[in-house]
Amino acid sequence: MSDLLTGAFDLHVHCSPDVVRRAQDVYDVAIAAKAAGMAGVGLKDHTTSTVGRCHVLNRMYPDGPRFFSSLALNPPVGGLNPAAVESALQSGVDIVYLPTYSAAHHIDVLGENVTPVPHPNGGVQRLKIIGQDSELLPEVKTIIQAIAHHDAVLATGHVSPGEALAAIEFARSCGHHRLIVTHASQLVPGMSVDDQRRAARFGALIEHSFLAVTECCPGNVSLAEIAEQIRSVGDRHIVLSSDFGQPANGPPIEAFCDHAGRLVELGFRDDQLKRMLCENPRNLITQRRRPDYETP
Predict the structure, then answer these.
(1) 146, part of any domain
(2) pLDDT tens digits for range 216-237
(3) Which of 40, 82, 117, 173 is the 20 to 30 Å CA partner of 256?
(4) Using alpha carbons only, what angle is made at residue 9 by residues 80 and 41, rounded to the nearest 5 degrees?
(5) Are 157 and 188 in contact (CB under 8 A)?
(6) CATH code at 266?
(7) 293 domain residue, yes or no
(8) What does DSSP assign to residue 24?
């Protein structure tokens, strides 16, 4: 493996234990990230918080890399559940994703069966974050306010571009700036360059995940298309991640390095790659202000 990942972050990695088969378990991912000299790895699970795994890994690797935890607001945690979010935030979760596989937009685009777990009672739970009045749902506002209070990262998940922009705009109205559009170039959410620019004007970073260029990703795009989107929005607004963990894509850290290296072939300079792999994700995820708690 090259030294391309030295000091880099990949904030979107899937590994086992999980409800679906993954390429590696969390221990092997940690070993690979350490060997690559990475600064940070974000562990994502669509069905539960990864706080516990990251806490143990950070004790094991006090000198880095740092592991960042997440919570995705899908049915196993109650969906748009402020109590689950507050609990995770008080436990130290770093990133909160709006609904992913249970988002109505995800289901509308990819169908009812693209989900890691069966839906309760055989039904499909289609979560929207905007109500019939075209306003964010009250529980969504409560969730975003809690994320802002705890200074965690709000990730837009698989909601529609319009919903994502509404969430970002509300978060900014709360004075919050740790915002990221989840894998903008994937079919879900399928965010246009104009909408990416609008999100960036609100202060959000735009994530491009390399999963989008693989056969594992429905409606996959070329790396050249992602490169064009990056250039259209500007690398100062971009975070590169893998979204890897699928067995077909192999070990996530190795595959992340391979795909990042292909951007060199597409004309990206070292300083641009450093900005998207190191500086932008570091500014997003580190130096977090955590509120003081009173132990009940």
Answers:
(1) yes
(2) 999 999 999 999 999 999 999 9
(3) 117
(4) 55
(5) no
(6) 3.20.20.140
(7) no
(8) S
pLDDT, residue 115, reads 72
- 3-class SS at 182? coil
Q: Are 284 and 205 in contact (CB under 8 A)?
A: yes
Terminal-to-terminal C-alpha distance of the chain: 48
How many domains does the structure of the chain reveal? 1
Query: What residues form DSSP beta bridges with 59?
Result: none
What confidence tens digit (pLDDT) does each residue in 79-97 have? Answer: 999 999 999 999 999 999 9
Tokens linked to 18 = 């999980």
CB 151 within 8 A of CB 290: yes
142 pLDDT band, cuts 50/70/90, is very high
Question: What number is the average pLDDT over the span 254-279?
Answer: 97
Tokens standing for 261? Answer: 């290296």
The yes-or-no verdict on residue 122 having pLDDT over 70 is no
Residue 294 lies in a domain: no
Give ∠ CA 152-158-162 in degrees, rounded to 5: 90
Q: Which range of residues forms the domain containing residue 132?
A: 3-285
Q: Quick one: pLDDT band at residue 1, thresholds 50, 70, 90?
A: low
Q: Is the peptide bond before 251 cis (omega within 30 degrees of 0)?
A: no
How open is the CA angle 131-75-45, to the nearest 5 degrees?
A: 115
Q: Which helix (H) or strand (E) holds 29?
A: helix 26-35
296: pLDDT confidence band, cut at 50, 70 and 90?
A: very low
pLDDT of residue 119: 61
- Give the Cα separation of 134 and 142 in Å (integer): 17
